[in-house]
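Annotated sample (chain length 291).
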Amino acid sequence: MKKVFLLLVLAVATFTLFGCKSSEYKVDGEFLAYEVSIHRNAPMVTMVSVTIEDGEVVAFNIDARQGSATQTEGADTPDDTSDDKWSYAWNAKTKKELGDDYGMVANGGAVAEWYEQAALIEAYMLENGVDSVEVDADTVITNITGVTIKDGGYTTLAAEALELAKAGKFQAVYCTSDDLVIATMMVDEKGVASDLVLDVLQGRPDGATFAWRDQTKQELGLEYGMKDASAIGKEWFEQADAIAAYVFENGADSIEVNEDGDISNITGASVGDSGYSEVFALLFDFANYEV
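Output written by the structure step:
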């Protein structure tokens, strides 16, 4: 009888130890890591996300959006650059959205189009882990059949996305003009959301040369210099915080704008809705957050 009781205790202990072992991923959703860069003298953002379902990694997604530079004035006088003017804008579609139109096969003779190779990398990382991807001295991926492109930061971003998933930190980005609009939010293991933050990283081109600003608008704080010119005497980060607080309580589609495109229904905010509604909608979708 004592032996039977002891075996029962051991069985219960074993179930408690192994059957109830919790995942390191406490929150389900899609976790995005991103990196800005410059491609052919225009803005670029590379994005890798990981999807967590029931505490397990079920998918990776790799994508990138590039931009373009356009000379708007001065092209007719190439020897005189004093009157040159340029504009910079994001492409309408990401690399994946472009599909075959990205042109790696047609124009470069690649073995497969970029989106097809990205899908192979995603599947390989899901099956074998992020650290399993091997590259040569030129960062060309060498151990995935059908892949000949470079590791354009994909594995580093995938590892970062996994760390964000462990922390329960959601991120979303939205491309507009030559800026990157950013939203972040924390969600704990009980599903409680907090710390919704709106931010923007601006492009800061110098004539014919594109560059990113060193700091985001939130990081610049009072140095951004909007307060004195603001109709309500508020700096950008103060208005952004008021917008985030309102959206957190009322939803991404709750922002209203007037005929000039300025936000009209949030106390403490009068700036334009420059992609803010869109980035919040993306973020809430990633986090399955409903107001």
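Annotation: The first strand starts at residue 29 and ends at 38.
Annotation: Residues 2-21 have pLDDT under 50 and may be disordered.
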